[in-house]
Design brief:
Blueprint lengths: L1 H20 L10 E2 L2 E2 L1 H16 L2 E5 L5 E3 L4 E5 L4 H19 L1 H6 L14 H24 L6 H20 L2
Parallel strand pairs: 3-5
Antiparallel strand pairs: 1-2, 4-5
Length: about 170
């Protein structure tokens, strides 16, 4: 209960500072040190925030894929990655969550659109998968920035490009 209250206070303070001063609460903290970012602290902060504010749990484990399990309110992140990559993957999965919780998601994506490994790879499915992946990177970035997190855009863009390129390769593969 105390952790929930602390998480809410951090969120409120971060939002207040951003709204009223344009500053991120993290700029003067141990998370941001001149040229380095403590990605472990950012991952921990986002995971705590998701539990407190969204009731989404984050599991970081070596035997999982980076994935949103919407029905189980769970995001899994593979622990074999660097904390920097874990952070960007978590931000991306948060993007999937924010997309799918919007009422418009069901209107913009066909009713039969469900991402499953065994689903037939129709043109519609491929296009909708690519659309969701691109949108999830943008939504996740907006979510993180909305919390006052100053995202290293050069690294973020590199990670996003690598991930999206894998989906493009999957899309053209027969």
């Amino acid at each position: 209960m105390i952790l929930n209250d602390i998480g809410r206070m951090e969120q409120s303070l971060s939002s207040y500072l951003l709204r009223h001063t344009g500053l991120s609460m993290w700029e003067d903290s141990a998370i941001y040190q001149k040229d380095s970012i403590d990605y472990k602290k950012l991952v921990d902060f986002l995971a705590s925030h998701l539990v407190c504010e969204e009731e989404i749990h984050v599991e970081i484990s070596p035997d999982v894929r980076n994935e949103l399990w919407i029905g189980e309110k769970l995001i899994t992140i593979n622990s074999k990655q660097t904390y920097k990559k874990k952070f960007f993957c978590l931000v991306h999965e948060i993007g999937h969550y924010t997309l799918r919780k919007k009422r418009e998601f069901n209107m913009r994506f066909p009713k039969d659109y469900v991402k499953e490994d065994k689903q037939k790879k129709t043109k519609q499915f491929v296009v909708d998968t690519l659309r969701e992946e691109v949108l999830a990177w943008e939504e996740g970035l907006n979510y993180a920035e909305g919390l006052g997190i100053d995202v290293d855009m050069e690294s973020y863009n590199r990670q996003r490009t690598a991930a999206l390129y894998k989906y493009i390769e999957w899309a053209v593969k027969k």
